[in-house]
Amino acid sequence: MHKSYPEPHESGFTLVEMLVSVSILAIIAGAAYAVFKTSIDAYHQTEARILAAQRTRVALDRLVTDLKHFQASPEEPDFVLYTQDVPSESGERDMLSFVTLVRTDPDPFLAQLNAGRGGSQQNLARLPPLVSDVQRVAYFVRADMPPGETGRNALPSANADAQTEELALYRVTTTALNPEVAIGSLIETGTAPQTDENGEPIYFQIATLVTGIVNFDLKYLDDQETWYDSWDQEDSNPVAVRILITVRGEEQPPLSLEATQVQPAATQPNVMNQSTMVALPQPPAAPEEQGGPPQ
Fold first, then answer.
1. 128 against 146, higher pLDDT
2. What is the pLDDT of residue 40?
3. 15 within a domain of the structure (yes/no)
4. Distance separating alpha carbons of residues 103 and 109, to the nearest angstrom
5. Which one, of 140, 158, 65, 154, lies nearest residue 96 by Cα?
6. What is the pLDDT of residue 35?
7. Sign (positive/negative) of CA torsion 226, 232, 236, 238?
8. For residues 42 and 266, is the Cβ–Cβ distance under 8 A?
9. Which helix (H) or strand (E) holds 21?
10. Residue 202 counted as domain residue
């Protein structure tokens, strides 16, 4: 007698069920990737803005410090405030130069004094020449220096500004107080002069404060509360200077002139604006203005 057994039960997914499962999984994975990518893009954009803010703040602090030590004297024509208003299609590229107190580190006077205590003339001869802390500084925008070409006494040519969109804010310090001899010559030729009109050596230091400059705008306030784009009054100094610096984030690709014309710098993505106003120290009033007897 033949005994029959029940057929085994077969379990599993059909082809239709597999296709539906894979489709649902693909939809969930796509949605998760979209959320993840959006979060990563937002993180990178925020990080770039933070870095831009830090770089801008460092440059702004340096300029504010120099302005707070602004030196002015009506009897000294070399102490004149030298400015230029340089508008462009992509933003302001102003220039400012003035005499201030620059801290030298290490202090050359202290080094000279310490070497002199040793009594060795040979040690004194090895020291660099003394550098005064009363120096002329200049802030201006120029094309960023290519890697490997960061010379102390040279700048990119003026023609490079029109050929590149990667601009930098430069700070120049020099012992030559005459703005035409020092700063004017440097900006026009791109090379710092080695000697002044008397044949004396000139100390120069060129530093890049911040790259990715979009806008560097300066305004000057007079005692009548009127703002000027530049200052050409040699017999007086502005009461205050207003500074606006706009820096592009590091992750932002270079902007074309066409894109800049359509979208102003203030609304461009991934840029950081920082501004401040600095009251300038004023020279002491003449004895006649103070009510005292003329000398």
1. 146
2. 76
3. no
4. 12
5. 140
6. 83
7. positive
8. no
9. helix 15-68
10. yes
Pairs from 121-126 (Cβ < 8 Å, separation ≥ 24): none
Tokens found for residue 238? 């502005």
Catalogue the E-assigned strands of the chain: 82-84, 95-101, 134-143, 167-174, 204-211, 213-221, 227-228, 240-248, 271-279
Show the domain range for 90. Answer: 46-283
Q: What is this structure's pTM?
A: 0.69
The predicted structure's pLDDT at residue 262: 35
Cα dist from 83 to 94, 133, 213, 237, whole Å: 8, 22, 19, 12
Nearest to 98 by CA among 117, 78, 116, 74: 78
In terms of pLDDT, which residue wins out, 262 or 52?
52
Q: Judge whether 259 lies within some domain.
A: yes
DSSP string, 259-281: HHHHS-GGG-TTEEEEEEEEEPP
Q: What is the pLDDT of residues 104-122, one digit of tens each?
A: 665 555 555 555 555 455 5
Give the residue-averaged pLDDT of 243-270: 55
| Cα distance between residue 218 and residue 85, in whole Å | 8
The Cα–Cα gap between 111 and 127 comes to 8
- Bridge-based pairing of strands 204-211 and 167-174 is antiparallel
Residue 24 inside a domain? The answer is: no
- In whole angstroms, give the CA distance from residue 120 to residue 123: 5
DSSP state of 118: T
Q: Look at residue 200 in the predicted model and tell me its pLDDT.
A: 78
Query: Token digits for 253?
Result: 């690709």
For residue 4, give both structure tokens: 């029959």
CA angle (107 as vertex; 103, 109 as ends), nearest 5: 120
Domain count of the fold of the chain: 1
Structure tokens that stand for 246 in this block: 């706009």
Rounded Cα distance between 214 and 212, Å, is 6
- C-alpha–C-alpha distance, residues 267 and 142, integer Å: 23
